[in-house]
Amino acid sequence: RKAKMVLDKSYIIAQVDNRIYGSFIEHLGRAVYGGIYEPNHPEADKHGFRKDVMELVKGLQVPIIRYPGGNMVSGYNWEDGVGPKEDRPRRLELAWQTIETNQFGLNEFVEWSKKVNAEVMMAVNLGTRGMDAARNLIEYTNHPGGTYWSEQRKSHGYKNPHAIKTWCLGNEMDGPWQIGQKTPYEYGRIAKETGKVMKLVDPDIELVACGSSNTSMPSFPEYEATTLDIAYEEIDYISLHQYYGNNSNDTANYLAKSLDMDHFIHTVTSTCDYIKAKHRSKKTIHLSFDEWNVWYHSREQDKKINHWQIAPPQLEDVYNFEDALLVGSILITFLNHADRVKMACMAQLVNVIAPIMTENNGRAWKQTIYYPYMYTSKYGRGHSIKPILSSPRYDSKDFTDVPYIDSAAVFNEEKEELVIFIVNKNVHDSIYLSTDIRSFEGYAVVEHVVLEHENLKAVNTSTGEEVRPHKSGASILNDGLLETRLTKASWNMIRIQ
Ligand code: AHR
């Protein structure tokens, strides 16, 4: 089984926006309480932030983190989470049916994000609230001083504005599960007016409008079209969300789902450009894929969790090896759409459908999906290069002509480094790939990292990393031809300098 590829320095798709390696922390399950914040943990710092968790987050080099939801934001009063902790109210958190203590809020999140070197992507509540709460919130976070809300911030110990640049106008407003669900027209109107008022407070911000919650929503892609038609001039990005699973235990079909994501991106891009043409606008709307991941392992066990607990273990998917392959393919898909996908958030970051898990009062550990995320984030920075790939193909239950190989390449001019990311979806056989990289004259292979495992269902735990990468991949570079053996069902990263 053989495949061929050409990578040429001049086939540039776009500069990669590093924010495609973003993530997400929602007040949900043990993401905040018992995840990033656990004041009684031996690893907690003076703020109550777990240092062991911060180290694992830093390892991923996450440039931007979305907060505080998710479904939760549609019922959230941001004011509950600021000011003296003893005065903060306990509330019913309706989206996930828990008790929210508000011991962690906006200022703590900004503080924590700085410590992990990430920017904040803040969402406003367009479910139970609207323009008024949004304009107050941005006055609190971004206005220098001398007004009610900016002085409140100062009195809470933050003299300088937080200067939050990226804002989400609500969350999944098309979903019947969403508190305050909206028709496309209702949402378009509230997004436009809220965006307008927020930009009056701070014209330097960037706004992300909701698109559809996933491709199966009956109003997809009309929801996007109507929202864009109404709010085109106020917004900067449209949001995409998608989760995948392997409920039917059909690995070939499961691994092909990156094609669905590719198609989703094409459709939303076309919808944006159709409205651009309709408006005779010069402005291009970019894509923020601000929720994506595998999510299905924990769905049954979550039904058994009693309501109104503080930080119950919700959405705690334990990921296996094949999930890591799909995650690797999804990141490859983003790189190949670097011209339009400018932000993306793996949902989520800690404990809740996450690459990082913790035990209450115990260890923090890495799931299988941590590794493709870490390597792509760390080395996938520079110009995305278009791979001209010819790969053997297969058919699966829902897809035809699926290339066995997914690949993306990034050229980092500063480091003079070419990095190739490849997934072999063939679970039975190795594939031999010949890549013509003659335009990278004088380069040599630095490392070939491989994530592979005999058992597609192998998982990591708090005590053992069954699935972890090794650096003994088989790649030889001679006269501009890179010969690589891609072992069956493997994720690969080849660095060439
Ligand atoms: O990430 C988990 C949930 O998935 C989010 O709260 C919501 O936006 C989506 O449906």
UniProtKB/TrEMBL annotation:
Catalysed reactions, as listed in the record: Hydrolysis of terminal non-reducing alpha-L-arabinofuranoside residues in alpha-L-arabinosides
Swiss-Prot/TrEMBL GO biological process terms: L-arabinose metabolic process; polysaccharide catabolic process
Enzyme Commission number, as recorded: 3.2.1.55
Start and end residues of each Alpha-L-arabinofuranosidase C-terminal domain: 290-490
EC top class, as a word: hydrolase
Keywords: Carbohydrate metabolism, Glycosidase, Hydrolase
Any one GO molecular-function label of the UniProt entry: alpha-L-arabinofuranosidase activity
InterPro entries: Alpha-L-AF_C (IPR010720), ASD1_cat (IPR055235), GH (IPR017853), Glyco_hydro_b (IPR013780)
Pathway: Glycan metabolism
Subunit-level organization: Homohexamer; trimer of dimers.
Similarity field: Belongs to the glycosyl hydrolase 51 family.
Annotated protein name in UniProt: non-reducing end alpha-L-arabinofuranosidase
Taxonomic lineage from the root: Bacteria, Bacillati, Bacillota, Bacilli, Bacillales
